[in-house]
Amino acid sequence: MAKYVRTATDTDLNAIMTIIEQGRAALAADQIPQWQDGYPRTSDIQQDLDADRAWVLIVDGAVAGYAALLNVADPNYAQIYNGTWDDAQDDHYTSIHRIAIASGYHGPHLADFFFSNLMTLSYQQGFQQIRVDTHLANKRMQHIILKAGFTYRGIVYMDHDADDQRNAYQIKL
């Protein structure tokens, strides 16, 4: 199995949206409300592409995964509850968002490979700290995040919405 990560391009948009829809369906099947309001939309992914923060996982020549790697401070991480960020005043970090693996590629631990590559990309860009969050009910993603070496840091809220609570994680490279 040949696998690698590359910058996503506009020609990948349809494949990425298919993966996002598969992720949305998997979350719905697990009764997790994350992504059930239409987010991420095609316009969100297009913004990632336009900002050069969109990455795809390629397996045997096919787009098998998607993630956004942001290298600016995430306003949703400005306040953390029931915990603290390590080096809380340090806004020099990347954050991983909108990560998903295509439904036909579950099983061979491709999420682990993808996370490892995103950490390498962060380091190559001069960042020694990465943050990520996931819904409280998303046990599968929590397991993947912890297995990648991240530490649980507390609770964050998306867009200051008390109904959109997330577990927040951090790793220092």
What does this structure look like?
It comes from Lactiplantibacillus fabifermentans DSM 21115. With 173 residues, the chain is α+β, with helices and mostly antiparallel strands. 29% of the residues lie in helices and 29% in strands. The chain has four helices and seven strands. It has helices spanning 13-29, 42-50, 110-124, 139-147, and strands at 3-7, 54-59, 62-70, 94-101, 129-135, 151-157, 165-172. It has a seven-stranded mixed beta sheet. Strand 4, helix 3 (110-124) and strand 5 (129-135) form a beta-alpha-beta unit. The longest helix has 17 residues, at 13-29. The two termini are 28 Å apart. The relative contact order is 0.18.
Secondary structure layout:
Blueprint: E1 3-7, H1 13-29, H2 42-50, E2 54-59, E3 62-70, E4 94-101, H3 110-124, E5 129-135, H4 139-147, E6 151-157, E7 165-172
Parallel strand pairs: 4-5
Antiparallel strand pairs: 1-2, 2-3, 3-4, 5-7, 6-7
CATH superfamily: Gcn5-related N-acetyltransferase (GNAT)
| DSSP strand content | 25-35%
Q: Residue-averaged pLDDT, rounded?
A: 95
Just name the CATH architecture. Answer: 3-Layer(aba) Sandwich
Note the overall shape: globular
The radius of gyration is 15 Å
Question: Which spans of ≥5 residues are poorly predicted at pLDDT below 50?
Answer: none
Strand order of the largest sheet: 1-2-3-4-5-7-6
- List SSEs in N-to-C order: EHHEEEHEHEE
Count of the domains = 1
Biggest beta sheet attributes: 7 strands, mixed
The helix tally amounts to 4
Alpha-beta classification: alpha+beta
Question: Strand tally, please?
Answer: 7
As for the CATH topology, it is Aminopeptidase
Q: In CATH, what is the class?
A: Alpha Beta
Protein name: Acetyltransferase
Pfam families: Acetyltransf_8
Organism: Lactiplantibacillus fabifermentans DSM 21115
Domain N-acetyltransferase: 3-173
